Give the backbone structure.
Amino acid sequence: MATHFVINNRFIVRSSVLAACAFAALFLAQCSGGGDSAIFVKEPLPYSQDALVPYISADTMGFHYDKHYAGYVKKANALAKGMGYAGKTVEAVIQMTAGDVSKTAIFNNAAQAWNHAYFFKCLKPGGGGAPEGILAEMIDATFGSFVDFKEVFLTAAKDQFGSGWVWLVLDEGKLAVVTGANADTPLAHGLIPLFTVDVWEHAYYLDYQNRRVDFVKTVLDNLANWDFVADQLEKAQPSKE
Ligand SMILES: [Fe+2]
């Protein structure tokens, strides 16, 4: 599959899948390592379902975590059963199925399971504000300032047509903002995910109706877990000190 990802308003097409090895190690826990009936595991929510109120309601989080995310995990396991993925990591299944039109259903559900587990980790009560340290320095060097980064991220969220995701990623060692439609994921494009916001309507419609940009801005200002993002950056690009 040649999947289109938008990087700062330019399209890239990648037909091959590169491993995001350093990052992927974080999610080995998602893999049962055993029978393929449980390759995908519903990860615990890192906070209570009402912990992000008033920015994300308990209703929204409840539906998102217990219905949508749980549904992707369940469907991915059902589709993977008997398909020879036993012992594979979630990341491996995503990379093995990306671009194969005969495996679109399992790719979609596997990628959605992975994307959601990652998204929930990108949020925390009392989050938001500006990142610090190397992450902040790289944002300033890439986008001009954190304010400029937020503008790029919000514009990407606004311009994403239909359901999808907005990501801050590492692309060959450089920061980039990318968007992906539906279940698409940076793991399928050799990009290393750092931060994401889900812009499927189920992520915000109960609380924000059609005001997607307000939702994403609220996440950036009040919920973004920059410590988690900085940790992912450090694991992907260890300090040379
Ligand atoms: Fe979602």
Remarks:
- Residues 64, 68, 116, 198, 200, 202-203 surround fe (ii) ion (CB under 6 Å).
